[in-house]
Design a protein that fits this description.
With 320 residues, the protein is an alpha/beta fold. 39% of the residues lie in helices and 18% in strands. The protein has two domains: 14-169, Thiamin diphosphate (ThDP)-binding fold, Pyr/PP domains (Rossmann fold), CATH 3.40.50.970; 191-319, Rossmann fold. β8, α8 and β9 form a beta-alpha-beta unit.
Amino acid sequence: MAAPAAKTEGLYDCREAWVATLETLAASDERIVVVVNDSVGSSKLGGFQKKFPDRLVNVGIAEQCMVGVGAGLANGGRIPFVSAAGCFLTSRSLEQVKADIAYAGFNVKLVGQSSGVAYGELGPTHHSIEDFAWLRPLTNLTVIAPADPWETAEAIKWAAAHDGPVYIRLSRMPVPALDVPNRVFRMGKAELVHQGSDVTLIGCGTTVHLAVAAAEALKAEGISARVLNMATINPLDEAAVLAAATETGAIVTVEEASVRGGLGGAVAELTASNHPVPVERVGFPGFVPTGSVDWLFKEFGLSADGIAAAARRALQRCRK
């Protein structure tokens, strides 16, 4: 079977998949409600508000209150989707996420909109690149970063049916749909997007299609690169990571996030403790400047060329 690759003919806004799925679910389940922080427009919830005006709560620019309201609604038997820009949802209300939702184990679905550097021109205050590192230690909070519209819809369906706290990270940046035959969304399980035996590229969210493009470029050099879509950051698919370490001997992680504590950190922690191999982490090293998304991605190696270069570095380390 030919190795799957990312489509190139169309780009999709995953927020459209999120709202379409949410409206469908809400039509058949009156428990589903939405809480926002004056972010109806950026969350694409205008249609939901028109269809279900009594099931959307807009608390204004008050993120701590927003998360608290979500916790209260969950405690009352509702299924609240708390939607806001990822940078504000996970920073301004981190204490409430930790204490009111994760520690309490309430059935709240947090949806971080326009995450990563999607608000690039608005600068570091609007970058949401630390969220994985902040939320991954909250052990019972499932953290998901869908890679395309199909996975976004499946993640929303799964979250609505799951009894427990969830964080779903969405971007406003258009991405291609992955071409993977017979797809099945399995929380906590990596998706094999591309077969390979020399090095493994592990991406999530907006970076998976870039990893596929890097794998194709490496193939032309005679390098066989496996690509894994690690949509679930917490819990991590440890078996898939350790298999990659054992079978390919080198790993590159790719994320639109800080490499400190995020996907790269999780993979490095696991391999260092169980099967040490060279791990190259592609992402943001810390605070990043103001700039367009395209410029920020290129500047920090979030491109097919940058990922391929990281793979070559990892392989070179194997030979030493």
